[in-house]
From TrEMBL:
InterPro entries: PRTase-CE, PRTase-like
Species this protein is from: Pseudomonas putida S13.1.2
Pfam (any one): PRTase-CE
Domain PRTase-CE residues, every copy: 4-222
Name the record gives this protein: PRTase-CE domain-containing protein
Amino acid sequence: MLVNIISGFFYLSLTEYHSKLSDLALEVMAQEHYEDDALIVAMAADSNPDSSHELLYNLKYIFTKAGWNSFTGVSSFGSAYKKYKTTGRKRLVVVDDFVGSGKTVISRCRELNKVFENAEVEGFSVSVKVLVSTRRGLENIRAEGIDVTAQHEISKAIDDSFPDTVAAEYRNLMIELEANLSKAYNDIEMPSMGYNDAQAAYCRENSNTPNSVFPVFWWPFNNDSNKRSTMLHRAMEDA
């Protein structure tokens, strides 16, 4: 099972990362008058280190190099309205590197829409652009009526990748493997099968592993609380 899942991993190299980031930027630049009203918003909730901050910083260079000298971005979605108040920019483009179940994206967009609607801002829009997403995540987001694009899509590494009988067997095997892991770390529960059952088989070169990835590949503690060697790595304070 593990060999089959690993063979289907999508590995995003640094070269591919920058290529897909440029493609994401081109999508924004294809929109009319983006220089005047676009606001690039990191998916992050606060100032704690987050992959969307890295994305925003790299996009700043790409857009500026392309001639958008008035590039405007905010490092957390909660700061978008404040930035709108000072700039008048109300075409919100929320960015991140990876989407698993889509739950976080839906929550962020609902909150942004609520804030701008309550403030009676006319003509605002919220769209989402990411580098990599699960297909299920995109389906969940689009079912909410949210405009979202991804530069690359991946399937659930078990449920969407094997016949039903094999998938059922693999799910049981994975849960058996997870039984060897600690159930929590500092009140953070081990995300069985990946956060919200995302079943992601994905990693980015030199990058923090998303919690949507099967924890057997990155959760660093056995069920006896001893540390274990892992193929991938994730900072545990935001596990």
